[in-house]
Amino acid sequence: MAAPVNIVVGSHAWVEDPSLAWIDGEVLRISGHEVHVHTTNGKKVVTNISKIFPKDTEAPPGGVDDMTKLSYLHEPGVLQNLATRYELNEIYTYTGNILIAINPFQRLPHLYDTHMMEQYKGATFGELSPHVFAVADVAYRAMINEGKSNSILVSGESGAGKTETTKMLMRYLAYLGGRSEVEGRTVEQQVLESNPVLEAFGNAKTIRNNNSSRFGKFVELQFDKNGRISGAAIRTYLLERSRVCQISYPERNYHCFYLLCAAPPEYVEKFKLGSPKSFHYLNQSNCYELDGVNDAHEYLATRRAMDIVGISEQEQEAIFRVVAAILHLGNIDFAKGKEIDSSVIRDEKSRFHLNTTAELLMCDTQSLEDALIKRVMVTPEEIITKTLDPVAALGSRDALAKTIYSRLFDWLVNKLNISIGQDPNSKSLIGVLDIYGFESFKCNSFEQFCINFTNEKLQQHFNQHVFKMEQEEYTKEEINWSYIEFVDNQDMLDMIEKKPGGIISLLDEACMFPKSTHETFAQKLYQTFKNNKRFIKPKLSRTDFTISHYAGEVNYQADQFLDKNKDYVVAEHQDLLIASKCPFVAGLFPPLPEESSKSSKFSSIGSRFKLQLQSLMETLSSTEPHYIRCVKPNNVLKPSIFENFNIIQQLRCGGVLEAIRISCAGYPTRRTFYEFLHRFGVLAPEVLEGNNDDKVACQMILDKKGLKGYQIGKTKVFLRAGQMAELDARRAEVLGNAARTIQRQIRTYIARKEFISLRKVAIQLQSRWRGKMACKLYEQLRREAAAVKIQKNYHRYIARKSYTNLRVSAIALQTGFRAMTARNEFRFRKETKAAIVIQAHFRCHRASSYYNSLQKAAIVSQCGWRRRVAKRELKNLKMAARETGALKEAKDKLEKRVEELTWRLQLEKRLRTDLEEAKAQEIAMLQDALHAMQIQVEEANSRVIKEQEAARKAIEEAPPVIKETPVIIQDTEKVDKLTTEVESLKALLLSERQTAEEAKQAYAGAQARNGGLIKKLEDAERKADQIQDSVQRLEEKLSNIESENQVLRQQALAISPTGKALSTRPKTTIIQRTPDNGNILNGETKIASDLSLAISNQRGPETEEKPQKSLNEKQQENQDLLIKCISQDLGFSGGRPVAACVIYKCLLHWRSFEVERTSVFDRIIQTIGSALEVQDNSDALSYWLSNSSTLLLLLQRTLKASGAASMTPQRRRSTSASLFGRMSHGLRASPQSAGISFLNGRMLGGMDDLRQVEAKYPALLFKQQLTAFLEKIYGMIRDNLKKEISPLLGLCIQAPRTSRASLVKGRAQANAVAQQALIAHWQSIVKSLDSYLSTLRANHVPPFLVRKVCTQIFSFINVQLFNSLLLRRECCSFSNGEYLKAGLAELEQWCSNATEEVSINQSLVTLLPCRKFRSLFLTSAYIQYAGSAWDELKHIRQAVGFLVIHQKPKKTLNEITNDLCPVLSIQQLYRISTMYWDDKYGTHSVSSDVISSMRILMTEDSNNAVSSSFLLDDDSSIPFSVDDISKSMQQIDIADVDPPPVIRENSGFVFLLQRSE
């Protein structure tokens, strides 16, 4: 991690900061080895050039999910990447194949639900976002595929989340390898439920963690050859025994003590417990409760977990009795006795706890007291009993408590292993190691020494694994790696564990000598390791020593090393507990061997731990390791706080920085050829313009820049430390020169733009001035032209006025003469018209009288003839009524219906009659008024004409005497009077015309209203008919359901013991109907005839047995031929499946629906099932889907349960149909004619006129089985299509990278090829959809089912694409959004093209009631197969729309949630917004305010218990019912379907050849 030397002025770099650890800034000046940096917080820092690191200014704003992708792999870069991702709630990050998990200190349930497990199942490592499930999935897949065991090592300091991470690993592995329950519990359930038990007895609250594991745990999950969990084993390491007796504030003891104190009252009273404050082992700290934890509930949860893992009720009670005994044991206190160095029980309170402890342990009270305050020493001469002083007695008490608890914990672990069970035949396992992380406190004792020793061992294993991964990477890329150095910590491990001379060996030696003390032990360490660079002796202490671990120096206090290393059981304690009357307590202390009891009782904890650790390392070495490093972001245990120094220390302790050092020792920067050319292609544009290979192009760029020491592999470029920064510096120089060129061009453009604008303003000013001068000239010319025009108009006015006066005088004179002539003419015409009117009235009266007489005679004749015809028809009806006496009940019902309809018809007629009468009256009134007006107008015209004629005659007859001035004056007055009268008549005529127009308008309005009322009346009638039909269908359905229930009840009664009498009837009483057995209806018995035959002839049953047998054989042959026929592909006839139609006709003819017992239904179902064995044959599946849906539709519209006839309303039939039914009923004496007539009667008129058949139980069961097969076939077709397009969807979620040619501008052909490659996968999906759609259409599958398939497939596409988009950050880019948008356009085009033109049968069109409907359907109809499938893509469409919009920072939250993405939830929008990155234009995502608002809403949702899962779930249910199919499918006419040749020539299937008229 050495700093690069190519730091230049202007570079962005990281420098050390005392508060933030690292801070970025810009280099201002470089003076030798000193660098002046201006940091982002405004400070100026001067530091050495070796202590600064370059910063990647082009790093994604959301960080990278794998830190090996960082351009600069160093400590500040790693820290910045983790901080960026943690801010976005991305708590998981890869470093190669190492997973770093940062504790969020809040619940993120959406990251661990079942949807997330389904997404990571089988996914390639690194394909989806980093996750603990991905590590578990890689381990599981490697175990399955390679057959090698794997292990997952989870490490981190207390509070980092190791335990929760381990739980998630176990859950996911149980999800992958779960199996069906065995004896009520599965292995994976017991393994998962073992966690609460171990946490209750092995976890405690510490300063750093409320649920800190105080022991190490390694869980081995064993798998069988099928990858199912077959067994498990739990191994624990180094339980912290001292915590039982000694705790400090604010820590707590183990959880089980507090859980027991919060147990139900009966247990508290039974064990004589109380508040935790009353017990010495618990009240050493004032912390008794945990925030958010209810100890009473946790106690019940622990008991339930014990039940699941197989701990019996008696064992549970014994366990908690021991726990209570330890609490009471801690309250026993001692006082100084009468003798020297002796002790006694202090007081009555202590005596009470002593008695309670003995009672709970079921041992003798006095023996317990002696074991605590006395010791027995055996010498060769005698046995000496020694008393202990109070201090030693307290030590004896604590030693007993620790021993009991330690043995109890070991028993629990052993019990869990026995209960879970191990598989001796298992060849593969996955181990999950939950071990304590590196610890360094102010006071570090023996526990910290063992913990850090463990971490040193694991760090060596980790370093070897990382080094091995580096080697594998280099070998895979075929580069030279022989010179890479590897830092090992073997010298540290030798110093600790080497024999002899190691720290553990020296500690064991010191423990064996009675006179050894911690001081002598420390001096021995000083002497042994005085020259070891890993060992440091503090200056101011005589017992402390410091060890330089890989994570830093740790100072240990050796004061209690000797005591904590001794693991022995006091003989008195052993004897006391072995003698316990409780088998459980006695079992915790098995008797020691004879040799062991006589020899030293000392046992080294350190040595035993070293052996356990060695065994663990051997196990890990034999497995393929996977590492998870848990990190605690802060010490206050609160979310959204990221402490840099704390994180760096944990990364250092977790070995992550050590792994980075190993990577930096080799080639820390690795880029694929595409990424390298994309970033550094600007350094050599000529290389990109050539037709060189990508590898050769990278080589040419590196050689041109003179770099040394790099390596080029098969797919990647490997750069040494510092070379990336050097290339970036040169790239920045090239980009800087380009930027200066661009700036120069921009400045030129701006200056020219200013000049052009000034010139334009000058030209505009000149234009304005010239325009103003032209306006003045124009105004002068306009005034002159106006004066000339005024003069001209005045002269014209004078001349016109003179002419007008002359003209008016001439006209007045002419008018007088013409008026005189008109008056004379008017008088003559008036007299003539009066005569004509009288003649017209007389002729009209004579014609009307003659017509009335003829009309009366015709009506009389018609009435007589109609009466005669009516009498004849009444006679016929009375004769028909006598013949149809059996239908009287139906007649009554029909009469009621007719009366009701007649009443409604009369009401409608009355309303229509009233409306027509009102309309007729109004029309008559308007016509009368119009006629009167026309008469008045004609009279006025005639008067005017007469007056004009009279005036003309008067003028002609008048002598030309000019002297008669008075007469002329009188005529002029008359003329004026006539003129006035004419004007008044014209006005009256005009008003009458207006009145007529208004009347016409009113008439038109009345007609419009009348038409609207008629239309409403027709709509009301149609709605009434629809409601009536719906009521009838509901009543039929209700009656069918009730009858089916009745049949099922009868069937249950027949099976039950009380119904045995039904099965004792003679077999001859039930005769199945066949075409040869005569008229027997519904399989019923003819009891009376049987009895009469039995009386008359005792050999009757024997004679009837032979024809019955022959009939059954013939029917069996017909059934065999039918089954053989339908097992073949019979094809389609006119779009109707032949097999379904033949099956339906045969079953209907054979009366199979109406018999109690038949095997034909089972044989048909078996035939269909055998045809579906090949599940991948889409053509066969589509064929049977079409047949089963058609057959089910026919059954749905034909069958009804028995007993439903009385409840089902009868359909309306025509008179001819009912007469034909009576005729066919009378012809049933002939079997063949009965079948033909029955079938023809049903086919006549289509499906609407079919009467329903009362079906028995086998027919109803057959209908249910057929429904199940239909749903199964539908699901198989849907799932097959899903399987076919699922791999293509994985390729469609991310846009394929364009070739290097697209990086060079001007390559239109390359861009066209790249564009074609982008949609190739989408076109493959479209081809698959087209193929399946063609198959379904070729097999005439109902469009309703095709639409359902398309809808569910598009929903599946929506779920897969949307979930993948949310789980893969590289997919949330701008260019990928454009790619997805283009692909969705292909799907939209397919939806619009998925139609078919279907011609409509002319005979069906004639049945339509309305001419408008017939003209609409006669031409053609279009079937839309896609349906609403396009709407199912709403999530991915809106997400893609969000990705490709511009100016995202300007969008508000309301605009996003209401306008852009109304369907997406806040969690989904937050996920997309934080993962978005623009790889095309470099724009940013939404603003920080919008992100903050989203977080607030997400927090509110989590508080309100709203589901926070952002993934979608695929719906695999059956989205339709039988009723939906029945309503959606059209009527099927099966009368003219030709039978197949196999059965056409068979005499038993003659009925299939009959056609309906």
UniProtKB/TrEMBL annotation:
PROSITE patterns in the record: DILUTE, IQ, MYOSIN_MOTOR, SH3_LIKE
| InterPro entries listed in its UniProt record | Dilute_dom, IQ_motif_EF-hand-BS, Kinesin_motor_dom_sf, Myosin_head_motor_dom-like, MyosinXI_CBD, MYSc_Myo11, P-loop_NTPase, SH3_Myosin
Q: Which residues form the Myosin motor domain?
A: 62-732
Residues that bind ATP: 156-163
Task: Tell me where in this chain the Myosin N-terminal SH3-like domain is found.
Answer: 8-57
- Actin-binding as annotated region, ranges: 613-635
Q: Which Gene3D superfamilies match?
A: 1.10.10.820, 1.20.5.190, 1.20.58.530, 3.30.70.1590, Kinesin motor domain, Myosin VI head, motor domain, U50 subdomain
| GO molecular-function terms, A-Z | actin filament binding; ATP binding; calmodulin binding; microfilament motor activity
Q: Which residues form the Dilute domain?
A: 1162-1500
Q: What positions belong to coiled-coil segments?
A: 877-957, 982-1051
Which superkingdom? Eukaryota
Q: What's a single GO BP term from this record?
A: actin filament organization
Pfam families in the cross-refs: DIL (PF01843), IQ (PF00612), Myosin_head (PF00063), Myosin_N (PF02736)
**Do you know which PANTHER family this protein is assigned to?**
MYOSIN, MYOSIN-17
Family per similarity comment: Belongs to the TRAFAC class myosin-kinesin ATPase superfamily. Myosin family. Plant myosin class XI subfamily.
Q: What protein name is recorded for this chain?
A: Myosin-17-like
